[in-house]
């Protein structure tokens, strides 16, 4: 995925296929490669998959929050010349997608959330990464998945590097606090966009009751479960994730 990055002005992104645009928003500790299954599958079925690198660590600290990232996504969609898009987000990316849907519904034709924050999440439990404590980071990375083996040494190294970069750690904490502050419970009943919720039945970060609450509060939502699956369904069960997402897109004629 890294070698596929297109750099234009302030944007870095990967793009695959032609057709209806699906814009993918990654999570706080997640990279574009987390969505490689989506990027391989949907271009074969008439969709253009566009994955921007969110400016989590590159914007001024005052623009390091959910609302500012949602504005950035709107600017990116405008820059790409898309009229309306389907937004797909995991974890923090889902929260940014939700906030974008609240602020710019005219830009949206559909919304797909998996393990999204916005109501509740237990990202680090009661504690944040201690610098230099690799065992702690390994344990936290493993907790993201039902199968701890998915937390590869490369993935743990990526998180470890963020935790050991003082500026990135400060911004990570700023974003985490912003996610709590921007709770969407009051907004969701007013948001009528068609929404697909695909959730890991064993998600410990945004547990199943979070998915149930999203489903109750969002007027036009469908909820699908994947068994033996944690917080990142599109990584842990990519084929099942793609199947459910594609079925939903066909059902909604998107």
From TrEMBL:
Q: What is a single Pfam family found in this protein's UniProt entry?
A: Abhydrolase_1
The record's InterPro entries line, in alphabetical order, gives: AB_hydrolase_1, AB_hydrolase_fold, AB_hydrolase_sf
**Hydrolase among keywords:** yes
The cellular component terms of Gene Ontology attached to this UniProt record, alphabetical and capped at eight, are:
membrane
**Ranges where the AB hydrolase-1 domain occurs:** 21-125, 194-238
Q: Entry's Gene3D superfamilies?
A: alpha/beta hydrolase (3.40.50.1820)
One Gene Ontology molecular-function label: hydrolase activity
Instruction: Enumerate the UniProt keywords alphabetically.
Output: Hydrolase
Organism superkingdom: Bacteria
The name under which this protein is listed is Alpha/beta hydrolase
The top of its lineage is:
Bacteria, Pseudomonadati, Bacteroidota, Flavobacteriia, Flavobacteriales
């Amino acid at each position: 995925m890294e070698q596929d990055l297109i750099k234009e002005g302030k944007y870095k992104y990967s793009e695959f296929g032609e057709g209806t645009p699906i814009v993918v928003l990654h999570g706080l500790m997640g990279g574009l490669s987390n969505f490689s299954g989506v990027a391989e599958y949907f271009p074969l079925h008439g969709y253009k998959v566009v994955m921007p690198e969110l400016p989590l660590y590159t914007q001024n600290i005052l623009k390091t929050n959910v609302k500012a990232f949602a504005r950035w996504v709107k600017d990116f969609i405008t820059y790409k010349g898309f009229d309306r898009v389907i937004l797909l987000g995991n974890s923090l990316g889902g929260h940014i997608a939700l906030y974008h849907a609240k602020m710019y519904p005219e830009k949206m034709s559909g919304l797909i959330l998996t393990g999204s924050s916005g109501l509740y999440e237990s990202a680090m439990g009661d504690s944040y990464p201690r610098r230099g404590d690799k065992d702690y980071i390994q344990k936290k990375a493993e907790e993201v998945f039902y199968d701890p083996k998915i937390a590869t040494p490369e993935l743990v190294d990526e998180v470890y590097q963020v935790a050991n970069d003082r500026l990135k750690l400060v911004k990570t904490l700023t974003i985490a606090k912003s996610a709590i502050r921007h709770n969407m419970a009051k907004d969701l009943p007013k948001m009528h966009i068609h929404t697909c919720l695909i959730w890991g039945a064993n998600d410990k970060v945004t547990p199943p009751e979070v998915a149930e609450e999203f489903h109750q509060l969002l007027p036009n939502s469908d909820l699908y479960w994947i068994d033996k699956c944690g917080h990142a369904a599109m990584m842990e069960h990519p084929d099942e994730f793609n199947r459910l997402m594609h079925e939903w897109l066909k059902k909604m004629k998107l």
